[in-house]
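Schema walk-through. Below, the input block comes first and the output block second. Nothing else is stored per chain. Lengths vary across the set, and this one has 333 residues.
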Amino acid sequence: GFAPNTTYYVYARTACSAINVGEWSNAVSFKTSCLALTPESFGLETFDDATRFGCWKSGSYNTLGTTNGTCNITNEYLYLYDAKWTASAEHQAYAITPTLAVDDITKLQVSFDAHGNATLSNKCVLGVGVVVDDMANYEEVAKLYLEHVGVAPTKANKGSFEEGQRYTVRFTDYAGDAEGRMGKKIALKSIGGSDSVNYVYVDNMTISYIGEITEPIHVVIPDSSNIPGSARVLWDAQPNATGYEVKYSTSPIDPAMDTVLVSGGKADVTVVKTSDATAVLTGIPGVTNMYVYVRTIAGEKSSIWSNGRKFKTSCPVAFPLPYEENFDNYASG
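--- output ---
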């Protein structure tokens, strides 16, 4: 059998007998089509192999129909760049997955790491939606406002680079395009601003079925609640929830095992239980990266843990003595 999305070359020659043969013809090539992917066969897309991107559609456009941006694989990330808006055109870069072999896309969710690197902080926006064929029938499901990292990643520092936040988008509310057609392709669209060039980096993408008990999504820590010693965390309320469990730590952890992701050692974890889609985190140190995880409780059952949410705590009113600073938690500049 032929491999999908692969170019083959065919040669032919006449054979009148075993020893009476003609010259080989010039090559004729053809390329096999891409296969529809199940969520399982989509797997974990790390964008390390650019050849896998051949079954995606990508490009850029603006409202005048011309291009002014790019989308490709850069340093093992999915990279979307678009220029500033002009008075007459809005620029956007996009990437569209291969067709998904599912009966109903509204039963799926997509998760990925993403961060922005805009010319002005906190301007990066990533739209997530569904298309039937191409961006002409794009229907947006979510608009994500990405964390601004301020530096571009490289292949050499991948893994140690600050990856930004992990995001999950569910397609439960997707109702098809204007003609009522249901798409089976997920689209990511970089949305810049009139005053900022937009750079978006996406990595570690997965597509999965939504579970029976759904984990919280859109976990946020409002800046106004991040005060010395405490912070409030919010998330979207989940159906059938009777409560929620929150874990937070100064290290990124596997919340199911309470182990630190990098070292595998036991983590120092604080647990909070709440009946509402919010919780107050207390006793947190100042000027420290914190990692928060939430899961849904539904009677005696529970969901998987949410994506970890990282935030940096505010400065305390006063630092106790003796005071020590190693400057490990600050960006250069």
